[in-house]
Write a structure and sequence with these properties.
about 240 residues; alpha+beta
Length: about 240
């Protein structure tokens, strides 16, 4: 089917019914959804950062995540490098479910890391081959795209100032930005485990010994912690 006709038909169905389903083609939104998944799209009067929008761009029908709002809407596929700046008139709706399951909201750290992947892509002359080896993409790939990388390690940033007032309170000051970040006892334990470059599985093993937990019990929380601290620069992907 002609792409412009497909977009016109989708717009008409959304206008009549308020929502409809389409089948995913392509890989730009993995692992949020995959080629062949059925996604439900709904019309909306407004869109927020983190929403997955369906829009037209140069005649193509795209389904990408909204990273920034303003006069134009900045979108990017979760598994992509390039962004699209879209006027509101080109947005048809947003994805509300995938194969019958509701979408999980993206935390702010994932949005920021996705932005930074695009920034690295632009800084490396729009070369995917040059962007993939960068620390920020490797961290994004491991923490967001969930792609296994046995060589991926994390380390506490030695350029920060660490001020621990007691056993359960740590302030981390960034001399470059002037920002201060605060951590509780669990955060302190994780950062102490990252004094040297440490792979995720190694970090989980160390923390399990401290908290008598299993890797499956704590993996999701540790991944979120790493994502947030990599985004803040407190932890480096090495």
């Amino acid at each position: 089917m002609d792409k412009q006709l497909q977009a016109a038909l989708l717009s008409a169905m959304l206008g009549r019914q308020g929502q409809t389903e389409i089948t995913v083609t392509g890989y730009s939104m993995e692992p949020t959804f995959f080629e062949g998944d059925r996604i439900t799209i709904a019309k909306s009067d407004s869109y927020a950062v983190g929403d997955i929008l369906v829009f037209t761009d140069h005649g193509n029908l795209l389904v990408h995540r909204l990273l920034e709002t303003g006069e134009y809407y900045l979108c990017k596929g979760d598994n992509a490098f390039r962004t699209e700046s879209i006027p509101a008139a080109q947005i048809l709706g947003k994805v509300i479910s995938v194969s019958g399951r509701s979408l999980e909201a993206w935390p702010a750290w994932k949005i920021v890391l996705s932005h930074r992947v695009n920034a690295a892509f632009r800084a490396h002359d729009y070369s995917i081959a040059k962007t993939k080896p960068t620390p920020i993409y490797r961290a994004y790939s491991a923490l967001v795209l969930q792609k296994e990388d046995p060589t991926m390690k994390y380390q506490k940033n030695s350029k920060m100032d660490y001020i621990q007032t007691d056993e359960a309170s740590l302030a981390v000051f960034d001399p470059e930005s002037g920002d201060t970040h605060f951590f509780d006892e669990v955060g302190i334990d994780i950062l102490n485990c990252l004094a040297e470059p440490t792979a995720l599985d190694e970090l989980l093993a160390k923390l399990c010994a401290i908290y008598s937990a299993t890797p499956d019990d704590i993996r999701a929380d540790v991944v979120e912690f790493l994502g947030e601290t990599v985004e803040k620069g407190v932890v480096l992907a090495v």
